[in-house]
Design a protein that fits this description.
The protein is mainly β. The protein contains no helices and 11 strands.
């Protein structure tokens, strides 16, 4: 069955870094656009970054440009989110999502907390 499993979240101090991973299985990963979303307490889920199927195109939310980098390894069916210079406002549950032609899959999320 389809699975997206996020990992790499945790507690980090402001200015620190984390690398999130999302391992995919059960579908043709290399054909799907992959996205990272996040949802902070009391807020709506927001798109953080996306990468197209071959990794040649990427987009970022303005709030993370220059600090976050999305990448993918189609041989490993995994998408990554490198997060640098983390701020308290980056605290949220981070979700990966796969989408193609109306099919959308979601992971269960991984918690990121930025606090001193």
């Amino acid at each position: 069955q389809v699975q997206l499993v996020e990992s790499g979240g945790g507690l980090v101090q402001p200015g620190g870094s984390l690398r999130l991973s999302c391992a995919a299985s059960g579908f043709s990963f290399s054909s799907y656009v992959m996205r990272w979303y996040r949802q902070a307490p009391g807020k709506e889920r927001e798109l953080v970054a996306l990468i197209n199927s071959d990794g040649g195109g990427r987009n970022y939310a303005d709030s993370v440009k220059g600090r976050f980098t999305i990448s993918r390894d189609n041989a490993k069916n995994t998408v990554y989110l490198q997060m640098n210079s983390l701020k308290s406002e980056d605290t949220a549950v981070y979700y990966c999502s796969a989408a193609r032609w109306g099919n959308v899959y979601w992971g269960q999320g991984t918690q990121v907390a930025v606090s001193s």
